[in-house]
TrEMBL record:
Keyword Cell membrane included in the entry's annotation: no
Pfam families: V-set
Keywords per UniProt: Disulfide bond, Glycoprotein, Immunoglobulin domain, Membrane, Repeat, Signal, Transmembrane, Transmembrane helix
Signal peptide range: 1-22
Name the record gives this protein: Immunoglobulin superfamily member 3
Localization of this protein: Membrane
Predominant location category: membrane
Keyword Lipid metabolism: no
Domain of life of the source: Eukaryota
Domain Ig-like: start-end pairs: 23-143, 150-267, 272-377, 424-515, 535-650, 664-791, 805-932, 942-1068, 1080-1196
Annotated transmembrane regions: 1237-1260
Any one annotated GO CC term: membrane
Amino acid sequence: MGLAQCLAAAFLFLLLLGLTAAQRVVTVQEGPLYRTEGSHVTLWCKVSGYQGPAEQNFQWSIYLPSAPEREVQIVSTVDPSFPYAVYTQRVRGRGIFVERLQGDAVLLHITELQERDAGQYECHTPNTDERYFGSYSAKMNLSGVALAQRQVTVQEGPLYRTEGSHITLWCKVSGYQGPAEQNFQWSIYLPSAPEREVQIVSTVDPSFPYAIYTQRVRGRGIFVERLQGDAVLLHITELQERDAGQYECHTPNTDERYFGSYSAKMNLVVIPDSLRVTAIPQTLNKVEHDSLELKCEVSKSTVQHSHVSIAWFRQRGGEAPVEIISLSRDFVLRAGSAYAQRQATGDVRLDKVGETTSKLTIYNLHPSDQGEFYCEAAEWIQDPDDSWYAMTRKRSQGTIVNVQATDKEFSVRLETEKRMYIVGEPVEFRCILEAQNVPDRYFSISWAFNSSLIASLGPNAVPVLNNEFAQREALGQLKVAKESDNVFVLKIYRLRLEDSGKYNCRVTEREKTVTGDFIDKESKRPKNIPITVMPLKTSISLEIINNASVVLEGESLRFGCNVRSGFGPQSRLSVTWQLVDKLNRRSEIVRLDREGTLHPGPAYAERSSYGGIQVEQVRPGSFTLEIFNSVKADEGHYECRVAEWTRTLDGEWQMVGERHMSTPVSITALEAGFAVTAISRTPGVTYNESFDLQCIIKPHYPSWVPVSVTWRFQPAGSTEFHDLVTFTRDGGVQWGDRAAAFRTRTAIEKAESSNNVRLSISRASDTEAGKYQCVAELWRKNYNSSWTRLADRTSNLLEIRVLRPVTKLQVSKSKRSITLVENRPIPLNCSVKSQTSPDSHFAVLWYVHKPSDADGKLILKTTHSSAFEYGTYAEEEGLRGRLQFERSASGGLFSLTVQRAEVRDSGSYYCHVEEWLLSPNHAWYKLAEEVSGRTEVTVKQPDNRLQVSQTHKNISVLENEWVTLECLVSNRTSPSSQLLVEWSVWRPGRSEKEVVAWLSRQSTLHYGDPAALGELRSRLHLESPAPGLFLLSIQNSTVRDSGAYGCRVEEWLLDPADRWYKRAEDVSGLITLTVKQPDPTLQVDTATANLTVQEKESFPLDCSILSRSSPESHFAVTWYNLRAKEAASHAEEGEEEEEEEEREVVLSVGPDAIFSPEAGRWEGRLRFQRLSAVLFRLTVLQAGGADTGNYSCRVEEWLVDPNGIWYRLAEEESGMVAVHVQDAGSTLQSVICSNDALFYFVFFYPFPIFGILIITILLVRFKSRNSSKNSEGKNGVPLLWIKEPHLNYSPTCLEPPVLSIHPGTID
């Protein structure tokens, strides 16, 4: 690639970096917000896409509705003087403050919202970027006072996080009432069960987590971090795949009523961690100024859109890693602080050399570059709030780089002639550099005085001095120069007193880059050289006087300082007043310089600005100091320091010497001996009497010392004091907030000659009974017209007792018992037999005591003002709608009725009566209380009258028939009750019953265990044709349905609270069901026959079924050949030869019309025909001599059960057919004569028998002709029965087809 192409590519890369530079975005909490006056408000603000330091600064302002164009500054994170005056006090008092959540996010807190805080708030971030790019502020509206509405906010979703990472989810609540610290509960709705809540963790309940999360919560794998009272963070330290789902943050209610949202949800998606960071681990040995190239491969396979950031680090030993260079997720290239200068000169580069590979290049290596190099990558995803989140972060294996340094050591020495000098003398410092090849190297020199820079010389040897020393250099008083390549000189021609101190020089070697710029390398400096500059001496003397050595706090202090001799007319004096306290701490009060300018000390600047300190020069050499309104801290030794100054030849002022003298001052504190005492002569009074209280203060202070006196009161039975009345420090009277009841009956008086205060109260009542106390406060007016409370003293307690009248209250103590059935009313009475006054009012509290409770529980309370209050027991048990309270006209009888009694209402009831009277100040008070006798109440449930028929039955049916089982409820407890009927069966051979089905109280049909019922479930039918009668029907019954059936009945009643409960249960007698299969009636024709055929002819073998067990039955037919074979041995001559029969299967046809394979000698010679449903014929073709023998057929009858399963019912075998096959040469005569039975049959049976036989054959032929017509196919050709029977025949067909077999049709 040519140079032009390289430059073009570099320009394009830089252009792309500029186009993709990060854009600053400031985001503020979305408005408008509605908050209540007095509530605590938080507003969040955050910034993204910024450059510069990680910790950004924030400034909050407001635009008020009255002046929407005018910015009013509130608070800043960096500038304490930022707030305007209207907000300064609230910011200093932490009423408004900023909480930093992280470097780029803050919360603005307004702890007590005021009406004037409504307006448009602006959050501004000062610029730290290289250029302005983006938004630097954002605004939102806070719309002032509104009804508080709870609002729960959770982090916006969906969030994508990688498996195994540590995640946090924030949740906060606003607009709530109650305690400032709210509780939070986190739950999850898993994708597999989106409607089911799974509880995770709670801030208040340790037992809140479900079992799946308990171990992780206990092990701190999941925990909640509280950011503040109304904001928390949910931490999941190691995210798992099963943690994906919808998270819900819930806040339990602490408000007076439900208003707003109490929970919020967000979705969390857990994705695999696919980030891979790889680099080749190796060890490289380099020499200083060599180049270094390292590669790192970063890949990911995340489906979601994400960005990747890459950074290279160097680490040595246990030191912290040093960032070299990084490419941010926004494709912004940044170098670490240690490598920024080298990156700017091109010595550090980061290039992308492939789709997933980046290359780090460092030119001109330094020895400081030695260490382990590794790259770190992070995968970032953008959350719904537009912020970027690092899902995972990984680092590669390291590469060890060793850099061998070249020999470029140098040393530095600093020299001067002596260490002690007099003002005006010259001094010269020489900085000597010892190194090799100095002319070929670049060095810079810097001179320092007491660690402050004097001047610096670069490689070009041009000195640069700071402001102060530059002026002295311009006046020729100082010189900085390079004497040779190795020697540098600092020379001061006229020393001053302030030139005393430590001097040093620093030499730094610099390296020139290819661009001509210099970069710093090694730096060295020698030890400091201290010098001392001695001043000229003076001969002045001082005298100091003061107005008093002991004063009372608040009085003025006056001092005089006179210079008696020793200074001439050309000299000038400067005066400094200092205070040395008892701890020997010195502080400067004020300084008057030689020009007559007054300079207050730091600690007295404000006091002096208000005129509290005054300094004068009465005449030359005579100075005065006056301190007004003294305080205890002004006690100590006052010192006057006078310095003499003369002008030098060059026109500058030089201090010749200094003298000082001091005088002690003691200040008596105002609060010394301050005490207060309260007295009274009437500690006990009755209603409407008067009493006096006196507050005596010691000592007696001057009139300018202000004292305030407050009478405080603690009502009887209370632990809290409140202020009644105050004599203020300026002589005014101020009544307390809770003294309204005292003002009309209270007089207060302060003595003129002292600070004693008397309090008089008339028409005493219980309101005035209690403890009284007076509090005196000693005040001082400060120099800035503000007030300081020096001390306060509290007197002894004075208890005033106000007595009440004696009670005469009596309540009836009689006891009684009541027993009733639920739903009936419970009458309760409470009678007052005597009372203290006709004007007495009564409060009645009704209680119930249960045997399981230690104390009674409150049901209802009627106050003395006839107001009703329901107790906790009434609320918990739902009694509010069932209580009825009455009071007799005379007022002494109270009645309580509990309607619709329940069993749980049983217990011991009693009333508690309180007698109330009106006090002299028209306030009701409780005079006495008494408890009545108890009423024992027993509430019972209705008697059980449920009866189910116990009749035992036996039922026997055939398969496929319907059977109905009966369950009769003969009696029940209530006509309105609901019944649950359950049918069960005990099957033969099983010990446990099986639930078949049950009919619920709501008439819903339910079945038993599907595995146990099997197909029976589809044949069940449950109904109730009449009240109390329940029928269970089984369709198409099978043998497996046999068993003992019974029903169980539950009776449910509705209690007074409209809740159903099971009152009774009963079971019926057993019904024994027996299901049988049909009886077999199969009968096959067993008649024997003889048949003679010629060789090569065919002969038929018929199998006729005379009767069948069922019209739906199918048949399996098998033909056998029984042939005679000679015995192994013969008898003697003249005896008959013994024969044995050999049984051979000719053909077998199954009930499903499947044929058996043909034996070898029968192959191709068999033809099968089904002439009718009960007549089967097998024809043997091409008969041969071997076919001679006896033939028979065996028939099996098969039936299908209700489940569609075939079973064999019966089997029968037909009679024998004797077949003789003649050779082709045989004659009829030879055949007949060779067979004795045939001979007799032909010649001796009468001819009528032949006639009957012929007629029978004709009838059979006629029948078979009709059936054969039905079995003919196209063109009258009979259908063939082939090996694929399912094509022509199915066992479920009602009419079997007529089948036939021709030669060659069976394989």
